[in-house]
Amino acid sequence: xxxxxxxxxxxxxxxxxxxxxxxxxxxxxxxxxxxxxxxxxxxxxxxxxxxxxxxxxxxxxxxxxxxxxxxxxxxxxxxxxxxxxxxxxxxxxxxxxxxxxxxxxxxxxxxxxxxxxxxxxxxxxxxxxxxxxxxxxxxxxxxxxxxxxxxxxxxxxxxxxxxxxxxxxxxxxxxxxxxxxxxxxxxxxxxxxxxxxxxxxxxxxxxxxxxxxxxxxxxxxxxxxxxxxxxxxxxxxxxxxxxxxxxxxxxxxxxxxxxxxxxxxxxxxxxxxxxxxxxxxxxxxxxxxxxxxxxxxxxxxxxxxxxxxxxxxxxxxxxxxxxxxxxxxxxxxxxxxxxxxxxxxxxxxxxxxxxx
Amino acid sequence: xxxxxxxxxxxxxxxxxxxxxxxxxxxxxxxxxxxxxxxxxxxxxxxxxxxxxxxxxxxxxxxxxxxxxxxxxxxxxxxxxxxxxxxxxxxxxxxxxxxxxxxxxxxxxxxxxxxxxxxxxxxxxxxxxxxxxxxxxxxxxxxxxxxxxxxxxxxxxxxxxxxxxxxxxxxxxxxxxxxxxxxxxxxxxxxxxxxxxxxxxxxxxxxxxxxxxxxxxxxxxxxxxxxxxxxxxxxxxxxxxxxxxxxxxxxxxxxxxxxxxxxxxxxxxxxxxxxxxxxxxxxxxxxxxxxxxxxxxxxxxxxxxxxxxxxxxxxxxxxxxxxxxxxxxxxxxxxxxxxxxxxxxxxxxxxxxxxx
Lengths: 356, 356
Known about the structure:
Chain A is mainly alpha-helical.
C-alpha cells in the first residue's frame, strides 16, 4: 500500500521522523553488538523494514499537531516515530501470518534472512525457520519499543495517559482486524458483508488514520469534540482508502501500483468488493476461479468482468464516494481551524483519487 | 520449566496477581466482543496460556518490594502482573519459533486453536495457519499490554522511567537470547561454550531473575548499589537455574518433571552441557545420535552415559555450585535487610536443588 502524493501532507518533511528512526535503530544496533553476531544484523534488517513507505502515519501526527497550534514538536516527532515503528511491526507480523516472503516484489525481512541463512549453507527448512524467527522477534521488539517511546514522552500526565489509551486502542483493534482477516480468508468466519466491512475498518482505518490524527490532536491539547470528530473522519477516510486499495489490487495498473493485479484474486483475499460479488446470483458461475493459485490472465479478466457486471465494482465506488462525502461533510461543518479543515478535505479526496 | 517449591517465595500468595490477571483478561475479553466472534476466544485462550506456571516472576517482584520496605503494594502487583504477561508472550512466541504445538504435554495456544479450526472443518493447512496466526497476535497483544501496564503505574517520574528502562532491557536482552538460541540450534552460529553460556544468561536470567528482583527494588525506592547487587545475584542464580533445567531435561525423572527426558536430545537443543561435551574428544563417537528425531531409549542412555564419561555433567554441576556460591557470597557480604538476605540465599539453593 503506497500513500504517495496525498494532499495535506505535501509540505511536511519526513526528515525529522527519518532522523528519529535512524537514531533509534542506530542506538539499538550499537547495543546489540554486545549480544552476538546475529543481533546487530536483526536490528539493521528491522531498520530496513521500516524504509520504503511514505511515512504517511507519522506525517499525519505531525501535521495535525502543527495545524492545531501544538507547541511540542519534539513530542510530536516521538509519537510520529512510534506509529511508524508500530506500522513496521504490523507489516512484519502480517507477512508472517500470511507466510509471505515478499513485500512490494522484494524479499521482506523473513525472506532476506532466509536467503542469508541459505547462503550460509543451511538447509531449506533451517533457513526458513531462521527467517521466521527473525520476523517474530523483530516485530516483537518494535511493538515493545513503540509503546516505550510513547510512555517516555515529556508531556503532562493526562496527555500521556490519553496517548497510552490511544495506543492500547490501536493495538487492540488492529489485532482484532488482523484476526478477522485470517478467519474470513480461511473460512472460519462466514464472509458476510458487514463482517468484511468491519474487518477493513479495524485492520487499517484505526491505526493508520484515526490513531495518528488523534495523537497529533492530543499533543496539541485539543478538546474532546475535536478528538471525536477526527476519530469519525479518520474511520470514514480509512475505510474509503482501504476500499480504493482493494479496487487497485484487482483493477489497478500494475506499472503504477508496483504489484501484480492477479495477487489478490489468486489469494482469495476477502474484501468488501468480493463479499458483495459473492452475495449476487451471477457470481456463482465464476466463483471457482477465485483463489486459484495459478489463475491465468484470461481467467482474471473474466473475474474482473464479472465484478463489474454483478455491480460489485460500482457498489464499492459508490461506498467510497459516500464515505468521502460524509468525511468532508463532518469537517466542513466543524469549528476546526481553516488550515486543518482544508487539509483534511484535500486528504480525503486524494486518498481515493490515487492510482497507486 | 516449573518453579515449584522455591524457598523465599513460600509465604507470598499468588492471589493478588491471579486476580489482577483475571481482571485484565476479563476486561479485554469483554471489549473484544465488539470485534467479531473469534476475538473474545483469542483473549480467553491468552488467559489460559498465562495459567499453569507458578507465578514465579511476579512473586519475586512482590516479595522483594515487601522485604525492602516498599509501601506501594498496588504498583507492585501491577509490575508483577506485567512480568507475567511478558513471560506468557515469550512462551507463546518461543513455541511459535520452535513450531511447537505442545507445552507441558498439553496443546498450547497454537495447538488448541489449530484443533478448534480443524474441528470446524478446515483443512490441515488452514487449521495450522489459524493456530499460528492466533499465537502471533496473542503474543503481540501481551507484549504491548505488559508495557502499557508498567507505563501507567502511579509512581514518581524517576521510578517510572527506571521501570521502563528495566522493561526495555528485559525485552532487548531476552530477544537477543532467543535469537542466539535459534542461531545456535540450526548451526548459523558455532556452538562455542562462551556463546552458549551467554545465550543461557540472556534468554532466561534477565527477564526471569534480574528483571523482577530489580523491579521490586525500584518500587521500594532502593539505591543503585542494591539494584546492582540484585542484578548480579539474579544473573548468577538465573544461569544456575537454567543449567539445572538443562540437566533435568536430560537426566531428570520424567514423572517429576512432567516432560520426556528424550526431548532435548532429540531436538538437538544447544545447552552448555552439550557444548561442553562436544568440545571433548570422546564425544565424536556418539555425536551422530544427537538431534535424531526418533532417538530410542537405549540410544538416549548411551548419550547420557557419554555426557557423564566426558565430564560434561560434572562440569555443569560444578558450574552451578560455583554460581550459587558466588550469588550467596554477594548477598552475605551485602548490607541488605536480614529478611531479604536470608530469602535470597534460600532462593539460590532451592533454585538448583529442585527435581522438577
